[in-house]
Amino acid sequence: MDDLTLVRDHTVYQCVMGSRAFGLATEASDTDRRGVYLAPSPLFWRFEKPPTHVEGPREEEFSWELERFCSLALRANPNVLECLHSPLVEQLTPVGEELLSLRGAFLSRRAHTSFSRYAASQYGRLLADVRVHGAPRWKHAMHLVRLLLSSRDLLRTGRLDIGAGPHRDRLLAVRRGELGWDEVDAWMARLTEENATALAGTALPEEPDLARIEDFLVRARRASASGAP
Question: Cys-Cys crosslink for 21: which of 41, 70, 86, 171, Cβ 3.0 to 4.6 Å?
Answer without folding.
Answer: 86
